[in-house]
Automatic annotation (TrEMBL):
<dbReference type="Pfam" id="PF00682">
    <property type="entry name" value="HMGL-like"/>
</dbReference>
<keyword id="KW-0100">Branched-chain amino acid biosynthesis</keyword>
<keyword id="KW-0012">Acyltransferase</keyword>
<dbReference type="InterPro" id="IPR000891">
    <property type="entry name" value="PYR_CT"/>
</dbReference>
<dbReference type="GO" id="GO:0003852">
    <property type="term" value="F:2-isopropylmalate synthase activity"/>
</dbReference>
<protein>
    <recommendedName>
        <fullName>2-isopropylmalate synthase</fullName>
        <ecNumber>2.3.3.13</ecNumber>
    </recommendedName>
</protein>
<dbReference type="InterPro" id="IPR050073">
    <property type="entry name" value="2-IPM_HCS-like"/>
</dbReference>
<keyword id="KW-0028">Amino-acid biosynthesis</keyword>
<keyword id="KW-0808">Transferase</keyword>
<dbReference type="InterPro" id="IPR013785">
    <property type="entry name" value="Aldolase_TIM"/>
</dbReference>
<keyword id="KW-0464">Manganese</keyword>
<comment type="pathway">
    <text>Amino-acid biosynthesis; L-leucine biosynthesis; L-leucine from 3-methyl-2-oxobutanoate: step 1/4.</text>
</comment>
<feature type="domain" description="Pyruvate carboxyltransferase">
    <location>
        <begin position="6"/>
        <end position="267"/>
    </location>
</feature>
<keyword id="KW-0432">Leucine biosynthesis</keyword>
<comment type="similarity">
    <text>Belongs to the alpha-IPM synthase/homocitrate synthase family. LeuA type 1 subfamily.</text>
</comment>
<dbReference type="Pfam" id="PF22617">
    <property type="entry name" value="HCS_D2"/>
</dbReference>
<dbReference type="InterPro" id="IPR054691">
    <property type="entry name" value="LeuA/HCS_post-cat"/>
</dbReference>
Amino acid sequence: MSDNNIQIFDTTLRDGEQVPGCKLNTEQKVIIAKQLDILGVDVIEAGFPVSSPGDFKSVQAISKIVKNATVCGLTRAVENDIKVAAEALQYATKPRIHTGIGTSDSHIIHKFKSNRETIIERAFAAVKYAKSFVEDVEFYAEDAGRTENEYLARVCEAAIRAGATVLNIPDTTGYCLPSEYGAKIKYLKENVKGIDKAILSCHCHNDLGLATANSIEGVINGARQIECTINGIGERAGNTALEEVVMVLKQHPYLNLDTKINTSMLYGMSQLVSDSMGIYTQPNKAIVGANAFAHSSGIHQDGVIKNRETYEIINPKDVGVTESAIVLTARSGRAALAYRAKNVGYELTKLQLDDVYANFLSFADRKKEINDGDIHQIIETSNVYR
Ligand code: KIV
Ligand code: ZN
């Protein structure tokens, strides 16, 4: 693996599936996992095996069918969780156990009613125990975003001593600013003893709409794995969106950070997850929203018709969208009308266009969006065609 390769850890089926009311059955999870494998993700977090018999069954089924990616199961720093995860992962070609514990004072004092030293001991013991089942163990420091850096470094050192290969630094509550999250990763990279034995991973939540920005700051500052979900789904405001981080890195090649993702599958993947979960994707969602490549104002349409790159930084084909859409509304100009008219078979002269445009505007004031059928009607009922 090159030092510039960013591992994509997909947690759609674990953290993503924690969206209220969006449970997937095993068959649906297996279909999504197969597609994620073809998409080129490095790790598929298939579930939290101890949480329910259904989740155990799903992790086991996914372990059997995934060919390329590592298959991962989540656990708490609890022996039984780890034992059950190891059992669910036994058929995986590349199994990973993802274990960990809360490290912020809020978690230590209120959730565990414990103290910092005991948490370090529990982190060490959990990783050590997971290592007795699999080689690849990832440790998470829950609420690392609000954990003081010096203490977090000590927890990470204990996890590395116990054999962790990946250190996950979650901004569990989506609280950090990008500069703060980037500085945290830099601090750990520079201060954790033994850090050359493990990679740092970004796991950011989107409570302030900063998950993508924070993950990108994380990799710029030395992390080498991003944990994300398709469409950014997840609890509360969701997780980092896979399609967003992948396209940020692709569109900024000077960062010299690559992923193995086949980006032309992104739109299809988004549709599959949204349909399976019954979660509608907002139209203005970056990369995969219905309007991500749609232009409706006259000035923008004129620019895009002359040269797509005037208002598009991504070629829609690169993410699996056939072409940009020129949407006809009352805000559209003559250029857009002529373009759409040509697409449905009318080559209008300048004079004809002036006449048809006047008819179009009165039609568009009555109807929000003009479709191909409307275009025929508008043209055929214009003076030039009577
Ligand atoms: O957000 C979080 O802290 C998590 C961990 C359990 C990895 O999802
Ligand atoms: Zn999370």
